[in-house]
């Protein structure tokens, strides 16, 4: 029998709570849902007003995985659905997770949460800039940290403040709060800095995706600033071998990283980190701290 629970006045069917999703750690679906309930406040703050795409993995990361932007079949009527532009100039529909019942409904589907860099109120007007730092073996998160520190200083030279988080996979994400700016402009600026990073640290950084160039270097992926692209949201659990989380980092953690394992955080780690640090990415939510791209960059 599927358990029925009530969350802020909404009735939810939570299924297969004893199902093991992560065989490596024995983590169950019930434990995953408990994590999302405990981490709801900061996660909802970063999902608010953004159309959500889902990477679904209902049988765990080793089972079938599929990415969807459309509202899943059976989406409750009380879950917010927004119209959003598509690359083809057509209009699509996507879920917007704005409250705890909607979050728990989505988490019950077993998903990663991905969002674009713009809110539904201003499609294609980015209020965040993102770099996805992706290491090519034998490079690891340690090398990503070195590139992140270079980018932090380069962004600061343009009056922009960067914040870091793990991707929840192998690399790091850098995020910058912006005054709403056309996504094409943000993309062009991000590409310019990625090229500069490769020029300044050619032994370490790479702005091109070519697989043959990747070993031992960090790909500075600027492409997720494209209005059609998305990035794993802060605090989302990833469909990896273990239940790793895209976790906000302090710059001190980035600066002192000497081993990639230092930056691997699983869902059981987040409660303690939130108690110790709060939401490290909270400044991204403060419009008063948003920066502007340099004129004529």
TrEMBL record:
Matches recorded under CDD domains: MtLigD_Pol_like
A Pfam family it matches: LigD_Prim-Pol
InterPro entries tied to this protein: LigD_pol_dom, MtLigD_Pol-like, NHEJ_LigD
Domain DNA ligase D polymerase: from-to ranges: 28-280
Recorded GO MF terms: ligase activity
Keywords, in A-Z order: Ligase
NCBIfam families listed in its UniProt record: ligD_pol (TIGR02778)
PANTHER family assigned to the protein according to its UniProt record, in alphabetical order: BIFUNCTIONAL NON-HOMOLOGOUS END JOINING PROTEIN LIGD
Name the UniProt record assigns to this protein: ATP-dependent DNA ligase
Organism: Streptomyces liangshanensis
């Amino acid at each position: 029998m599927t358990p029925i629970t009530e969350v802020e006045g909404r009735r939810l069917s939570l299924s297969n709570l004893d199902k093991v999703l992560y065989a490596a750690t024995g983590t169950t679906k019930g434990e995953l849902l408990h994590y999302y309930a405990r981490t709801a406040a900061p996660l909802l703050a970063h999902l608010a007003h953004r159309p959500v795409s889902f990477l679904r993995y209902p049988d765990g990361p080793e089972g079938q995985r599929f990415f969807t932007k459309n509202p899943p079949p059976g989406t409750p009527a009380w879950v917010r659905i927004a119209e959003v532009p598509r690359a083809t100039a057509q209009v699509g529909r996507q879920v917007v997770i704005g409250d705890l019942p909607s979050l728990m409904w989505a988490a019950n589907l077993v998903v990663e949460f991905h969002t674009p860099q713009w809110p539904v109120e201003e499609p294609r007007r980015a209020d965040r800039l993102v770099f996805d730092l992706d290491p090519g073996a034998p490079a690891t998160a340690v090398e990503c940290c070195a590139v992140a520190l270079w980018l932090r200083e380069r962004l600061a030279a343009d009056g922009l403040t960067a914040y870091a988080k793990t991707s929840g996979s192998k690399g790091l994400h850098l995020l910058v709060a912006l005054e709403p700016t056309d996504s094409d402009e943000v993309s062009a600026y991000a590409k310019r800095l990625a090229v500069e990073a490769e020029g300044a640290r050619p032994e370490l950084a790479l702005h091109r995706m070519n697989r043959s160039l990747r070993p031992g270097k960090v790909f500075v992926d600027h492409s997720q600033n494209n209005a059609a692209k998305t990035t794993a949201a802060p605090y989302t659990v990833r469909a990896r071998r273990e239940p790793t989380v895209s976790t906000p980092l302090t710059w001190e953690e980035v600066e002192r990283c000497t081993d990639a394992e230092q930056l691997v955080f699983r869902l059981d780690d987040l409660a303690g980190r939130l108690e110790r640090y709060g939401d490290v990415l909270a400044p991204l939510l403060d419009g008063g701290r948003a920066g502007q791209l340099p004129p004529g960059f």
